[in-house]
């Protein structure tokens, strides 16, 4: 099954397809089934403009809480406004925590305090400027990305990470570069893997998880979004990364040959 996809990329609607550049790969569903979850996955080859997608309808049409993947944009807003000076700036919680630690370890209270310092009006300005999901904050400035108030499609998430990589979001280059350093999780001679995870609960009580980012091999970036949900008993913290790596390995990554 091949379909033409309109790639939504932060405030711009760009046709990133020909009738043949989206390959729907239903075989990837076996990985979701084996893990006891459902969801979608998309991989965008920036060099060729080709997409590999599992569950196309969910990917392009369904909206979900971004959970801690919102920290990608949140960190950029904090840096751009000067609320956070750099990734080493600490906020005193039970102990002193830097933004780097809070980003990589998903320390929610750090970013809740950052959100309160940014303030609702400034946060709303940036969400509107970015056209981030439904750009809705609601009543709680320090939890709207966790409580199913703001919602975003997987396709929009892919637009965010792609434009981050190429310094194309409406922020200074320094802001982009700091957040890209925060995104980097693994680096070796074969590949560099950068991502941000997210985990929260849907209105029905099921877990909702994300992994968004990119993998580079031979200086070529490939952007991905993994979106999945499962029952409360699913060990989602481990499942999301294991599932991502199984799919990427299936697609020929991790050996430096892409």
Structure description:
- With 258 residues, the protein is α+β, with helices and mostly antiparallel strands.
- The chain has a single domain (6-221, 229-250), classed as DD-peptidase/beta-lactamase superfamily (Beta-lactamase, 3-Layer(aba) Sandwich).
- It is built from 9 helices and 11 strands.
- The protein has helices at 29-35, 56-61, 71-81, 99-104, 108-118, 120-130, 154-165, 173-183, 236-250; strands at residues 6-9, 12-15, 22-24, 38-45, 50-54, 90-92, 96-98, 184-187, 192-201, 207-217, 220-230.
- The strands form 3 sheets. A 7-stranded mixed sheet has the order 3-5-4-11-10-9-8, sandwiched between helices.
- A hairpin with a 3-residue loop joins strand 6 and strand 7.
- Helix 3 (71-81) packs across helix 5 (108-118) and helix 3 (71-81) packs antiparallel against helix 8 (173-183).
- The protein is globular, with a radius of gyration of 17 Å.
- 41% of the residues are buried.
- Mean pLDDT is 92; it is low at 1-19.
Counting DSSP E segments of at least 2 residues, the number of strands comes to 11
Average pLDDT taken over every residue: 92
Order of helices and strands: EEEHEEHHEEHHHHHEEEEH
As a percent range, the share of helical residues equals 25-40%
Record the strand order, biggest sheet: 3-5-4-11-10-9-8
Shape: globular
Main sheet, how many strands, which sense, barrel?
A: 7 strands, mixed
Separation of the first and last Cα atoms: 24 Å
Uncertain residue ranges: 1-19
- CATH class, named Alpha Beta
Backbone CA Rg: 17 Å
How many individual domains? 1
CATH superfamily: DD-peptidase/beta-lactamase superfamily
